[in-house]
Amino acid sequence: MTRFSRARGAAAAAAIVTAALALAGCSAGSSGDNGDAGSAEDSPTVRFGYIADFNGASLLAIADDQDLWKKHGLEVETPVFTNGPLQIQALGTNDLDFGYIGPGAMWLPASGQAQVASINSLGNADRVIAQPGIDSIEDLKGKKVAVPEGTSGDMILTMALKSAGMSISDVQKVAMDPSTVVAAFSSGQVDAAGIWYPLIDTIEKQVPDLEILAENEDFSDEVAFPSAFVANPTFTKEHPEATKKVLAVLRDAMDYRAENLDDTVKITAAMLKGDADAFASDAKNAKYLSSSELDELTEDGTVATWLTSLNEYFVSAGKLDKPTDASTYYLGDEFVAAGKK
Q1: SS3 of 250, please?
Q2: What is the DSSP letter of 217?
Q3: What is the pLDDT of residues 112-125, one digit of tens each?
Q4: How far apart are CA 271 and CA 25, in angstroms?
Q5: Cα–Cα distance between 285 and 265 in angstroms, integer?
Q6: CA 25 → CA 48, 328, 331, distances in Å?
Q7: Closest CA to 100 of 199, 230, 222, 11
Q8: Paired strand residues for 192
Q9: CB 185 within 8 A of CB 207
Q10: What is the pTM of this model?
């Protein structure tokens, strides 16, 4: 991930948030069906960021379609962002209350910059792909490899190189945003890439005989690849009741998605005005938990183990020096409590 200076980071986040809020769609509910809306002070308008893909938007699409914000007595603004780190910056400048990040940005909560409000999904969409004729990780030595920095594509590349006794210094790493990776690989400007589905589906239309050198499942014994919803610590401290309601919305939406995945694909495609087939491809490369499943994994310590393993990876990759203990930034107790009447 590019590390902006504080001034540049704050300015970039403010500019993105200002533009995003101007374009954001809103779902409003002044009182909840469960009668616990409370005062405006207890239930402020929640600013909830997302990324316009299936994993980043599906729960918000469900919440809107099923009137879950209204059910739980919340008003919400939903600005769209291009990546997770920008949302973390916006949380840090108090321009956002909740957001969404992929596994590649999980080092940011671990460094104390946000809280993990809930796990969203367990990913299996990431791959290291290479041009035809490059059939091993070792063959990447000295070659140009495109990757969106600070993402799960960055993670899978780093882990694949390590598994082959190599490091990032053994390749010519070229940092690009995801859409540029697609164009650069498809046109043969780079030899390989750390990227994910459904973007790989797009690439395969141009390079049908590309090689897949590594995937998430190759490292399943070492680390999980969870995406997550993150929270602004200032918001959760000052508005505990609103936080509980947000978590209740996420729980309801998670259960709907787990039971109605095909319908969720259609709902998300309608919200984003996108291709339902592409979202279906995205959906098949992840595992989606129900709220009760996440409760169990939270209470038995599995989620903490996932986060700790990620922290160890980020330390080895040079992203973190001394990570915060997972129990201090994962709102697991609050998530479980939000499901109790």
Answers
A1: helix
A2: G
A3: 999 999 999 998 98
A4: 10
A5: 13
A6: 11, 32, 27
A7: 230
A8: 130, 145
A9: yes
A10: 0.79
